[in-house]
Amino acid sequence: MSTKESRKLVVEDPNYSSRYFKALAEFREAKRFTDITLQVGDTEFVAHRAVLSAASPFFNAMFDDAFAESQKEKVNLLHETNVAVMSAVLDYMYSGKLTIAIKEAALLLRNFDYFQMDGVKEECEKALLKTVNAENCLELLLMADEISLPGLHETAADFVLRNFKEFCNSDEINHLTIRQLETILNIGNVRHPDTTYKIIISWIRFDETNRNSYIHNLLSKYVKATNLSEDLIVQKVPKYIINDDFIANHEGGVQWLLESFFNLKHSNLYIFSTKTECPVYSFNPKAASLHQIAKQPLLDNFSAVKYKDSIYVVGGQANDEFTDDGTKYDIKKKLWTNINCPIRKNQCGLCVADDKMYIVGGWIDQISYNTVSSFDFERNEILTLPNIEFERYSPGVTYYNSSIYVFGGHSVLTDDVCMSFVERYDPREGKWAHAGTIDNFDIGCTCALVSNSIYWKDWNASLQYFDPRCQLSELVQEFTGFGTITSFENSLYLANEEGISQLNSDDEQCTVLFMSSFKSPFIIA
Question: pTM of the full predicted structure?
Answer without folding.
Answer: 0.55
